[in-house]
């Protein structure tokens, strides 16, 4: 739309005037381009928090997702714009904010996951203060923000997450605790910190599965994999 273009080209005065005239017109303000981006997405992408603030006041929806499943807050967290994150959360109703904080994009990441991956400690701490779930797991493999911090070898992030109640005994869908992910990594301080908090059974690496324990296939190559018709207990002859 015309509003999309004015924001992309950072025509501030023009954007503000269009927003003023369109206030309350939710269909126009939340119109999505061919990448499913609303004007609010673009205001965040182009780092224009003042425009984002006016869009929210005029009626833009913070929960709308783009083609990657990102809300504007996901993008702000990924880009590391604390001011944009602050604006977006300040003008969001509490029940809507909780839904956005819990929402995952199409890669399975919450806003907290994205901020953690990028190492934006201030944003991580701010999101946690708003009620973001510190133990939220990625749908694909079950990693929490703490698992991600260990993967990234970010000791400051590990300390911050533990301080805010991260569960050191939470395991991925493959059964790995954050401490178990420290094996073979260079940062010994992370390993020492987590070892003191992790239960003994989650400190050793899981044993590999015994191949003999795998279940036998339901059918052998010589068996039929469909039901035949029986009459009097005998198969039909053709």
From TrEMBL:
UniProt xrefs under InterPro entries: Ankyrin_rpt, Ankyrin_rpt-contain_sf, NF-kappa-B_inhibitor
Q: Which domain of life is it from?
A: Eukaryota
Instruction: Name one process (GO BP) from the record.
Output: cellular response to tumor necrosis factor
Q: What is its main location?
A: cytoplasm
| Gene3D superfamilies the record matches | Ankyrin repeat-containing domain
Pfam families, per database record: Ank, Ank_2
UniProt keyword annotation of Signal present: no
Question: What functional role does this protein have?
Answer: Inhibits the activity of dimeric NF-kappa-B/REL complexes by trapping REL (RELA/p65 and NFKB1/p50) dimers in the cytoplasm by masking their nuclear localization signals. On cellular stimulation by immune and pro-inflammatory responses, becomes phosphorylated promoting ubiquitination and degradation, enabling the dimeric RELA to translocate to the nucleus and activate transcription.
Q: What is this protein called?
A: NF-kappa-B inhibitor alpha
What organism does the UniProt record list as the source? Cuculus canorus
């Amino acid at each position: 739309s015309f509003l999309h273009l004015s924001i992309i080209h950072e025509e501030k005065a023009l954007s503000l005037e269009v927003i003023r005239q369109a206030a309350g017109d939710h269909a126009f303000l939340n119109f999505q381009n061919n990448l499913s981006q609303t004007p609010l997405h673009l205001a965040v992408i182009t780092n224009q928090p003042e425009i984002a603030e006016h869009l929210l006041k005029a009626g833009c929806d913070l929960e709308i997702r783009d083609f990657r499943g990102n809300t504007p807050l996901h993008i702000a967290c990924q880009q590391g714009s604390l001011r944009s994150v602050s604006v977006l959360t300040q003008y969001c109703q509490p029940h809507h904010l909780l839904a956005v904080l819990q929402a995952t994009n199409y890669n399975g990441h919450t806003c907290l996951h994205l901020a953690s991956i990028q190492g934006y400690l201030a944003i991580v701490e701010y999101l946690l203060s708003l009620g973001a779930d510190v133990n939220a797991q990625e749908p694909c493999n079950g990693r929490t923000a703490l698992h991600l911090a260990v993967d990234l070898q970010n000791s400051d992030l590990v300390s911050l997450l533990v301080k805010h109640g991260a569960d050191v005994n939470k395991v991925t869908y493959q059964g790995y605790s954050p401490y178990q992910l420290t094996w073979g990594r260079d940062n010994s301080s992370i390993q020492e910190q987590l070892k003191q908090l992790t239960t003994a059974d989650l400190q050793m690496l899981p044993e590999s599965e015994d191949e003999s324990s795998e279940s036998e296939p339901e059918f052998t190559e010589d068996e039929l994999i469909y039901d035949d018709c029986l009459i009097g207990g005998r198969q039909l002859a053709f």
